Amino acid sequence: MTTQVPESEVVSTKRVACDGSEGALGHPRVWLQIPEDTGWVECGYCDKRFIHEDYAE
């Protein structure tokens, strides 16, 4: 059994918006704030992870 890894995106801002990226099949748009201590945040709807470019490997 394999586990599908949620999508990740490297971003240049600390505040990002997520709407599921699937048009009508997505989810309501939510605004997320990337905390300084972790450098990333996950969407509560679709689990997409946004990583700030300063913390990307």
Describe this structure in words.
There is one protein chain. The protein has 57 residues and is mainly beta. The chain has a single domain, classed as HSP40/DNAj peptide-binding domain (Sandwich). It has strands at residues 8-11, 15-18, 30-33, 40-42, 49-52.
What's the arrangement of secondary structure elements?
Layout: E1 8-11, E2 15-18, E3 30-33, E4 40-42, E5 49-52
Task: Describe this protein with a few key phrases.
mainly beta, 57 residues, two-stranded antiparallel sheet, single chain, HSP40/DNAj peptide-binding domain, 33% strand
Kindly summarize this structure in a few lines.
It contains no helices and 5 strands.
CATH class: Mainly Beta
Counting H and I runs of at least 4 residues, what is the number of helices?
A: 0
Task: State the CATH topology.
Answer: HSP40/DNAj peptide-binding domain
The overall pLDDT, averaged over residues, is 91
Strand content: 25-35%
* Biggest sheet architecture: 3 strands, mixed
CATH superfamily: q5lls5 like domains
Q: What overall geometry do the principal axes of the alpha carbons give?
A: globular
Low-confidence parts = none
Rg over CA atoms: 12 Å
What is the annotated CATH architecture?
Sandwich
Elements, N to C (H/E): EEEEE
Strand order in the sheet with the most strands: 1-5-4
- The strand count comes to 5
Total count of domains: 1
Distance between the termini: 28 Å
Helix content: under 10%
State the secondary-structure class.
Answer: mainly beta
